[in-house]
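Why Divalent metal cation transporter? Reviewers of the renewal asked for a concrete example.
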Amino acid sequence: MKQSNRSILLGAAFLMATSAIGPGFLTQTTYFTEALVASFGFVILVSIIIDIGAQLNIWRIIAVAERRTQDIANMVLPGLGYFVAFLIVIGGLAFNIGNIAGAGLGSNVILGVSPEIGALLSGLIAIGIFLLREANKIMDRFTQVLGFLMIALTVFVMFSASPPVGEAVQKTFMPDKIDLIAIITLVGGTVGGYITFSGGHRLLDAGVKGVDSLPEVTKSSVSAIGIASIMRIFLFLATLGVVAQGFTLDPSNPPASVFQFAAGNIGYKMFGVIMWSAAITSVIGAAYTSVSFIRTMNPKLEQYHKYLIIGFIAISTLVFVSIGKPVNVLILVGALNGLILPISLGVMLIAAHKPKIVGSYKHPIWLTVFGSIIVVAMSYMGIITMMDQIPKLFS
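Here is what the prediction returned.
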């Protein structure tokens, strides 16, 4: 494999993985670990299996069709692509406000500046990347470096926390309890909404497409889930180690508590670095992917898509700086994220069996069956989650 191709595949994998590893990812993992203790390992295992099945289907079909998701959806049913794009962009914008907030909080921990100033500076850094001539290459490298940094720091804290690894392994396969809301939340936070499409669309933009590219696409797809899952597992073990020692996490900022309990003030500063890294890479991934869903709708949008990305980041930043983090919207969109996946995956599975879209390509039966089971399961769990979350918005 050429060095340039290897770099593109790794870049797509890290773009998807770091898009998933945002402020919500850190909070969800620590929150559910405290609630489920070692049994949370089972939730992680199930979510990884679902994540791989969903992403393998979506990335392969994008590559074979040689089109972005919204264009494929419009070929399945005219107008459907616009509906999917609307869901993705609205969800991406809402989550990006949360990502910018996370960058502000990380800056506050590292530099001592206010979250608003930190968010503004972080937004300018993200915009600066897309203003550069080699924006896509720099974006790939930026997400790779920060991805490795997040994992390395989390590994350090995990060892400092001395987690009960044996118990974690046992409960991963024989859990004391199973939490459906935890599963839907993890899957939604890893491959829900815009996230799974970030790497698939990045490969398409880089020219990695067609049936001949499927081995590379498959490898990059699984690698992306692997990177995000490694971070999830290490953070789970770090949190488990802290909880097993009898510490109670601060409900207003559970992940910060983990790092502070495990490694003192140094750990708290590490948390700031991880929070900022997770947030800024998610800002870049959300903006890039959300715009990739609307850029093909008009030649002018395609021509000026870089400025759309910049505008997307600027709006997210200004909303947070002016009115703060809209918690209720984020909660609702979090629940909706679990429903976007079965809709988009269902459309892609239909497309996989339409010769006018994929030509002579034959989608593996096992992937179709695997994907169909995920669509049904995620629809069921998504509805349950919505029924649980919506009343809380009005209570």
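The chain has one domain: 3-393. This is the kind of structural detail the renewal will allow us to pursue systematically.
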